[in-house]
Write a structure and sequence with these properties.
Elements lengths: L13 H7 L1 H25 L4 H13 L11 E3 L5 H11 L6 H21 L4 H4 L3 H24 L8 H7 L9 H16 L6 H4 L3 H15 L6 E5 L2 E5 L26 H28 L8 H18 L5 E3 H9 L6 H21 L4 H15 L2 H9 L2 H16 L2 H20 L3 H9 L2 E6 L5 E6 L7 H8 L5
Antiparallel strand pairs: 1-4, 2-3, 5-6
């Protein structure tokens, strides 16, 4: 079959696609897995769980989700966007028993089940109905949360108690306590992430910058002898280094698996965790799937509801065996496409390769300092919340910036779910005030807007909106857009 827009023959799917395109997909998967390895470890550590949880998620996202999904070139696995959700869930479900992550795994299983139901009943549009400025505010908040949690790791000091704002401002009170030997590793890592992508040398582009950060950190571990617990002097002051600052991995397969504990399912905190995981994972999956579709050289479209079912199944499996929730990840998907993957099987191969890495490279992984992962995550956090994000949304309108800021502030002082609710309600309130309509009339015109599409003599499509056009009516608008030939 040939795509009429691109003129390219569309690769076969299913088992036929597996046999015809295995070489291209495998080669792309090698590059993807090299990017996925450090990110999976980093996301897990930043989420406050064992590194193996990130690898389990990446492996399941590759192997299980590929078997039933609606996307073609997307890569599935854990992502930075869910770090704040897991951190918040662990904190709220911590009853002092040491089983907080087991409770979160139970919430993950339920969240995955809800995603499956959303896909089956074709309700994926619900996640798309949240205002874009609110989603931006959530992503900026996630960036701030990641940056704040990992700056303590990157500087070698213990995180203080309190909300994200208190932790962010509190770091300034502890500058004198920064561990210089850990800080050296972190600073070198951040500089590499900034500089390496700009260098022309093929040597440095052979591996992703994040993997170079891990590789370079290992000699520093030996230089400062992190393998033995002891103090090192820096300008006459002793600073502690030791194996507790290095990644820990299970010794055998039986210790890699953690199981969900549903004994907190009667609590409000449990269901807040479930709804938060469901919403954030679904929003990001649908948004990233659309972004990946734009990069697909064959212009194939993701079946969004089917993709939600596949992601939900994978998330349920992860929750059952100790992994983090799964979403579609755009950075790894971009690597997949730029390395000429043809079909969904590149995602499958990347999961297989990660299993091989897990069993062959565990001794090497255990030489990686947490500071190296913190460097990667501090960099990711800053990019999610960089000034350019604020400028971009300001250029869309001052009111959009206001919606984003309200969402951001509420999220940082409470949690992601309340941030979404508050941001959406505030957006709705402002729109009602600006519309100067009775509330009942406003909602009636939003839900039943007279939106239709016409085609002129030149074949140009025109969409006309009569009524209120906002996030409440986006589903009808998007259903018309989908009817426009690509």
């Amino acid at each position: 079959m040939t795509n009429l827009t691109t003129g390219h023959e569309i690769p076969a799917t299913g088992l036929k696609g597996l046999t015809q395109n295995w070489r291209a997909d495998l080669l792309a998967a090698i590059s993807v897995s090299l990017v996925a390895l450090p990110l999976a470890l980093g996301v897990a550590v930043a989420s406050g769980v064992e590194p193996i949880a990130g690898l389990i998620s990446a492996i399941v996202g590759g192997i299980v989700v590929t078997l039933y999904r609606g996307s073609h070139l997307a890569i599935n696995g854990p992502a930075a966007g869910l770090i704040a959700v897991i951190l918040s869930a662990i904190a709220s479900l911590d009853d002092g028993s040491g089983n907080a992550f087991n409770y979160v795994l139970a919430a993950t299983v339920v969240a995955g089940g809800i995603q499956v139901l959303l896909g089956i009943f074709r309700l994926g549009f619900i996640a798309e109905s949240i205002p874009s400025s609110v989603i931006t505010g959530i992503m900026v908040a996630i960036g701030v949360i990641i940056f704040t949690s990992q700056i303590y790791v990157a500087t070698g000091i213990k995180s203080i108690e309190g909300n994200t704002i208190e932790k962010l401002t509190g770091i300034l009170d502890h500058i004198g306590e920064f561990n210089p030997f850990i800080l050296i590793i972190s600073v070198i890592g951040i500089l590499m992430l900034i500089i390496l992508p700009k260098m022309q040398s093929r040597l440095f582009h052979f591996l992703p910058a994040s993997l170079w950060v891990l590789i370079v950190s290992i000699p520093l571990v030996y230089l400062f002898n992190f393998l033995r617990s002891h103090d090192l002097s820096f300008f006459g002051r002793p600073f502690h280094v030791g194996p507790e600052f290095l990644i820990k991995m299970p010794d055998d397969l039986s210790n890699m698996i953690m199981y969900p504990d549903f004994s907190m399912s009667h609590t409000v905190e449990f269901w807040i965790a479930v709804i938060s995981i469901t919403l954030i994972a679904s929003i990001q999956t649908l948004a990233m799937a659309k972004a990946v579709d734009k990069l697909d050289p064959y212009k194939r479209k993701t079946q969004l509801n089917k993709d939600l079912i596949g992601i939900g199944i994978g998330t349920m499996v992860c929750g059952a065996i100790g992994g983090l929730p799964i979403i579609t990840v755009v950075v790894r998907s971009t690597v997949n496409i730029t390395n000429h993957a043809k079909t969904k099987w590149s995602n499958f191969y990347h999961g297989i390769l990660l299993i091989i890495f897990l069993f062959l490279l565990t001794p090497v992984i255990q030489m990686i300092p947490y500071a190296a992962l913190a460097a990667i995550l501090v960099y990711i956090g800053f990019r999610l919340a960089s000034p350019s994000v604020f400028m971009k949304i300001y250029n869309e309108g001052l009111e959009q910036l206001l919606f984003m800021l309200v969402t951001l502030i509420i999220t940082l002082y409470t949690n992601l779910l309340w941030g979404i609710i508050a941001g959406t309600l505030f957006t709705l309130l402002v729109q009602i005030l600006l519309a100067r309509l009775p509330i009942s009339k406003f909602f009636s015109l939003s839900a039943n807007s007279d939106t239709n599409m016409m085609i002129d003599k030149e074949g140009t499509h025109h969409i006309k909106v009569k009524g209120v056009a906002n996030f409440l009516s986006i589903h009808k608008f998007m259903s018309l857009v989908k009817d426009i030939p690509s």
